Every structure is written in structure tokens, then in C-alpha cells.
Protein: Outer-membrane lipoprotein LolB
Organism: Kushneria phyllosphaerae
Amino acid sequence: MTSGTAIGRTLQFLTLALIVLLAGCATQAPSQKEERHPGDWRTQQPSLEALDTWTAAGKVGIRTPDDSQSANLDWTQRTDQYRISVSGPWGTGRNTLRGNGHQVTLTNGDGTFQAPTPEELMAQQMGWSLPLSSLVYWVRGLPDPRSPHSTSEDDVGFPATMDQAGWHIDYRDWSQADGLWLPRRIVMTYDDLRTTLVINRWQPGQADLP
């Protein structure tokens, strides 16, 4: 066995391990000191609708019939300004997406790029895209008010599924932060594209956007 072959197999093993790790994070629910109860969602909904500032960290997995990718995700939101950093396991480095409602910019090792929408910019430069314009609502368990939607509830009245703009959103798990129940695991599908978002750390009301 040549050293090049050994290195190649090692990289394949590490990539597989990272995919398995992401899958484990996506299926293992965190232990919660509190439990959700009927009426909790209705009580907190006005606070969620007013929530426009947060820091969230976790992982995102993208799967198509031909490929699958996973990455770490750090998201800081303050009103209409946001910074989303995505770093993948394939040596793609860090991609930082910034927007303020008027301009969207992506910065990575290849330079700085701009496009009219975050979805278009991510698709051009990263090869895949999240529906960020609507995700700012979906990540709170809310529908995007700019288009029609349909929802279903779980046994305690929290959102279970949502269909909007061609996407099917499945809320698989919840976590509590600063008195608010927020989605921890979201599975979103659009045709043959499947995106799994796992948020391991929520910090509502906190944002540092230098």
C-alpha cells in the first residue's frame, strides 16, 4: 500500500465518521429538565413572534439522491442583520454569509461575493442552499407571513409539520432557552433535497455583530 492510498483511505474514514456523528446528533434527543405542556405554545407565541435577536449553533446536513454533505453552523441574528458561518468537513474552510435586508455578501477563502438573495448566493458559491429568507421564521416554529402555509400540531399543541413555498418542514425535537421552547431538530424537504438542521445551543436575545 502506498502512502497516498493510505492517506486517501484515512480521509474516507474520517468523512464517514463525521457523517455518522451528524446522524447521531440528529436522532439523539437532549435530556430536558422541563417538559412541554398543552398551552405552552399559545402562551409563548407572542414572544416568539417578537424575537428578532439570537445566537444559535449546531449542525446542518444536506442530502440529495447523488450526494450528502454536513457542516457546522453558527447563526447570529439581530433584527434584519445576520451573520451565518458554515464550515464543512471536506476542507472547504469557513464560509461567512452576511446580510442586512439590502445586501447579501459571502466571504470565504476564494474571496468576497454578492448576489440579490442569500439563497442564490449560497447556491452559486457553495453548491447548495438553505431557504434563509423563510428559515428566519421556520427556525422559531413560525410560518413566513409572506406566503400561504398549512400546519399540523403535535399532542401538546406545538407545530409538528409545516408546508410552505414547496417545502415540507418537520419539527422533530424542541429545547428550552431563557424560558422559550425553540426547535432543536428540524427536517426540511423540497422535492429530492433533504436538509436536517440540529441546533445544539440557543441564546435568544443575544447577538454580537461586529
Summary: Residues 1-32 have pLDDT under 50 and may be disordered. Residues 40-204 form a domain with the outer membrane lipoprotein receptor (LolB), chain A fold (CATH 2.50.20.10). Residues 54 and 206 are 5 Å apart (CA to CA).
